[in-house]
Amino acid sequence: MRNRIEIPNGIYGITGDNFSKGKSNYLCVEEMIKGGIKIIQYRDKIKNTREKIEEVKEIRELCRRNGVIFIVNDNVDIAVLVDADGVHVGQEDMHPDDIRKIIGENKIIGLSTHSPEQAKEAEKNLNIDYIGVGPIFPTTTKDTLPVGIEYLEYVAKNLKIPFVAIGGIKAHNIDNIIAKGAQCISLVSEIVGADSIVDKVKELQIKFL
Ligand code: 3NM
Fold this sequence. Notes:
- By secondary structure, this protein is of the alpha/beta class.
- 39% of the residues lie in helices and 17% in strands.
- The protein is globular.
- The relative contact order is 0.17.
- Residues 112, 132, 134-135, 139, 141-142, 144, 166-169, 187-190 line the site of ligand 3NM.
- Pathway: Cofactor biosynthesis; thiamine diphosphate biosynthesis; thiamine phosphate from 4-amino-2-methyl-5-diphosphomethylpyrimidine and 4-methyl-5-(2-phosphoethyl)-thiazole: step 1/1.
């Protein structure tokens, strides 16, 4: 029997230490949780594996203490090591079928998608829990060209798989993303780069009530 957690509506928090104004990933996550975020993804493209593990162990416990879902980006091994709630991968990372064999039926798998073909394939053929839909707008956080808001509209109208809208989303353009049907949205630089992450998250979370 499968006993998998669903991704919650609202803001999906992702760490991003390029933008964090000197705050550690741990501190950013602490503030995100204080602001009301219920799901966190650890994503770090700078640290080496050993440094990541040290940090992830502490962030995992922080999330557990606060009842917040904890997802690890890319590193399936680290996710298993810390008993994370799930893994998020891109199109060129380990295949979701292989990840499922490693992490089991009860854990979350998220997959980034950048086209209707990838989203349809994910819904039809992959045993995953949600897809990322983006980058909707230009972003410097990830080296992928924007796909435009039409892609979000396509997924919201035609597919049933839960999705997280991402990429270039800010406080000033999020209303339109919600209006297009996104129930879970991720903003990286806008949140971790804010002077007060707590206040920024509160301001954004209120839009989902
Ligand atoms: N994934 P920001 S876009 C981590 O489209 C990530 O899969 C994307 O950062 C995807 O909110 C992205 O700063 C970066 O634009 C999002």
